[in-house]
Write a structure and sequence with these properties.
The structure holds two protein chains of two kinds. By secondary structure, chain A is mainly α. Chain A has nine helices and no strands. Chain A is elongated, with a radius of gyration of 24 Å. Chain B is built from seven helices and 13 strands. In chain B, helix 3 packs across helix 4 (about 120-135) and helix 5 runs parallel beside helix 6. Classes of the chains: A mainly alpha, B alpha/beta. At the A-B interface, helix 1 and helix 5 of A face helix 1, helix 2 and helix 3 of B.
Chain lengths: ~220, ~250
C-alpha cells in the first residue's frame, strides 16, 4: 500500500493486532536463536520440576512396595529409612520442600524474564516504532516464557523420573519391575507437567506487562 | 505561500517540559515549522538543544506538553495509541544511529516486520522484504543475521525496513553517526536515491556535514527554539563550518 496520499479530514484506522499464530512465528526466531540464554532461565524450571517429579515418583514406588507386603521387601524398605507403618498420609516435610522449591523456581523465572525486558528495552521500543501494539509485546513474552517453561518442565519430568527409577532400582532391585505403579507414576507426571506449565505462565505475567508499557521513544534513548 | 496539500508535517508552538524532581526542564519552547512533501530536511543543534526531543515529536514517538504536530493534516495529539501505531507503521519509517535491528532475526525477517504488523502474512511479508533488500543492494544477504554483516550493510537493512511499507516520511536519527566516512556517504546517497525514486520526505537529526549538503532545508535548534530555518542556497557548507559557524 502506498500511504503517501493526504489524510486530511480522514479517519485514521486503528492498528490491528496480529494473530497468535503469527506472533508465535515471529517470536520463535528469537527463542531459537537465544537458546543458550534460554537454558539459564530453563535450568530453574528443570531443577524444580525434576525435584517435584522425583519426590512424587519415589512416593508412588514406595507406597506400591509397602502394599506388596513382602517380608524381604519390608526389610529393604526399612533399611532405606521408610516407615512402613506410616500409612498413605503425605509427609509434611516433603510437601514443604516441594512448595519452597517451586517458589524459588517462580522467583527465578520472574527474575530472568525481568532481566530480559531490561536487556531488550531498545528492541521493544523498536518493535513499537515499526507498528507493534502492546498486545504483541505481551504475547511475545508470554510465548517465550511458556515455551521455555514447557520445555524445562518436560526435561525436568524426564530427569526426575529417570533418577527416581534409578534410585528405586538400586534400593529395591528386582521388586521394582514386579510392583511398578504405572498409573500412579503417570498421574504424578501429569501433576508435574501441569504445575511446571502453570508456573511458567504465571511467572511471565509481570515481565510481559512491564515490557508492554515501554514506549517507542525508549528505542531512541537507550545506548548499546 | 505553499499550497496546503504540499505540506506533509506541521508543528505549531510545540513545547515540551520535563519534571525532574522539583525542577522543570523546558526542552522545547515553542517550535513552529512546516515540512514540504518530498523535502529533505535536516535538524541541527548541539547536545541538549532539544533537537532529539523535537525529532521524537515529529515522529509521533513522544507527545508535546503543549502545541500540536500534524501529519498530512492529522493532529497526532488527538489519536489514540492504536491509531498512533497505525501512523508509525504505515506513514513513517524510522532509521536509527545504532541501526536497532533485531539481533536474533535475519535481514529478511527484520525487514518483513513492518509488513507483518500491517497485517500481511509472514510469507508474503518476507517476499516483499526480499524485493526491497534487493533494491538497497542486499539481495545476497537475505538470511544473514545483523552480526554477520558490516555496519553499512546493517544500516542498509534498516533503510529497507523503514521503506518496506512505502511510508510517506522517513525519520533518520544520525543515520551516519556510527559509520565511517565512505560508508556514511553511501548511506546518504542511498537515502537521496530513495527520496527521488519513491517521492518520500526525509527528516534527519544530524551533525554530518555531508548530510547537510544533500538537504533541501536545514533547521537549527538552539535552547529549545528554531534558531534559524534555511532553504537550499540560503546556507553554505564548508569543511567544519556552516555559514562560518563551527558545528557543535
Amino acid at each position: 500500500m502506498n500511504a503517501a496520499q493526504t489524510m486530511s479530514n480522514a479517519v485514521i484506522p486503528e492498528q490491528r493486532q496480529v494473530s497468535w499464530a503469527v506472533s508465535f512465528q515471529v517470536s520463535w526466531a528469537g527463542i531459537r536463536r537465544r537458546f543458550f540464554r534460554s537454558l539459564i532461565t530453563m535450568s530453574g524450571v528443570v531443577l524444580a520440576i525434576a525435584f517435584l517429579t522425583y519426590m512424587q515418583v519415589m512416593n508412588d514406588v514406595v507406597r506400591a512396595l509397602v502394599r506388596a507386603d513382602d517380608a524381604v521387601l519390608n526389610v529393604l524398605l526399612q533399611q532405606a529409612g521408610v516407615d512402613i507403618y506410616a500409612g498413605d498420609a503425605p509427609d509434611r516435610m516433603m510437601v514443604l520442600l516441594i512448595v519452597l522449591s517451586l517458589l524459588a523456581c517462580l522467583v527465578g523465572i520472574i527474575n530472568s524474564m525481568l532481566m530480559s525486558v531490561t536487556e531488550r528495552i531498545k528492541e521493544i521500543g523498536t518493535l513499537k516504532c515499526l507498528g507493534a501494539l502492546d498486545g504483541f509485546i505481551v504475547r511475545s513474552y508470554f510465548i517465550e516464557s511458556s515455551v521455555q517453561g514447557v520445555a524445562g518442565t518436560v526435561l525436568g519430568c524426564v530427569i526426575g523420573l529417570a533418577v527416581a527409577i534409578g534410585v528405586a532400582t538400586t534400593n529395591y532391585h528386582g521388586y521394582i519391575a514386579a510392583n511398578l505403579p504405572v498409573f500412579s507414576i503417570l498421574r504424578s507426571l501429569t501433576t508435574s507437567l501441569t504445575t511446571g506449565t502453570l508456573l511458567s505462565v504465571m511467572a511471565a505475567i509481570l515481565p510481559a506487562y512491564i515490557a508492554a508499557r515501554k514506549q517507542p521513544v525508549d528505542a531512541m534513548r537507550v545506548e548499546e | 505561500m505553499k499550497p496546503a496539500d504540499d505540506i506533509i508535517i506541521t508543528t505549531r508552538d510545540v513545547t515540551k517540559v520535563y519534571q525532574l524532581g522539583a525542577e522543570q526542564v523546558h526542552a522545547l519552547r515553542g517550535i513552529s515549522l512546516e515540512v514540504r512533501r518530498g523535502e529533505y530536511l535536516s535538524i541541527l543543534g548541539p547536545s541538549g538543544s532539544g533537537k532529539s526531543t523535537f525529532f521524537n515529536m515529529v515522529g509521533g514517538l513522544d507527545r508535546p506538553s503543549a502545541g500540536s504536530v500534524s501529519v498530512d493534516g492529522c493532529n497526532l495529539q488527538e489519536l489514540n495509541q492504536k491509531q498512533l501505531a497505525w501512523i508509525r507503521c504505515h506513514k513513517m519509517g524510522y532509521i536509527f544511529q545504532s541501526f536497532n535491528l533485531i539481533q536474533t532475526m535475519t535481514a529478511v525477517e527484520n525487514v518483513a516486520l513492518p509488513r507483518i504488523f500491517a497485517g500481511e502474512s509472514p510469507a508474503k511479508a518476507r517476499a516483499a522484504a526480499a524485493e526491497i533488500l534487493d533494491l538497497v543492494g542486499l539481495g545476497h544477504r537475505l538470511t544473514h543475521l545483523p552480526a554477520q554483516v558490516s555496519g553499512g550493510q546493517q544500516q542498509r537493512i534498516a533503510i529497507a525496513r523503514a521503506l518496506v511499507n512505502r511510508p510517506g516520511i522517513i525519520l533518520a536519527d544520525e543515520p551516519t553517526g556510527n559509520l565511517d566516512l565512505h560508508t556514511g556517504e553511501e548511506i546518504i546517497q542511498l537515502l537521496a536515491d530513495m527520496k527521488k525514486q519513491l517521492g518520500i520526505t526525509v527528516i534527519t537529526a544530524t551533525h554530518d556535514m555531508k548530510m547537510l549538503s544533500a538537504s533541501d532545508t536545514v533547521v537549527w535548534i538552539k535552547d529549545g527554539r528554531a534558531d534559524r530555518v534555511a532553504r537550499k542556497g540560503e546556507f553554505e557548507v564548508a569543511i567544519g563550518t556552516i555559514d562560518g559557524k563551527t558545528l557543535a
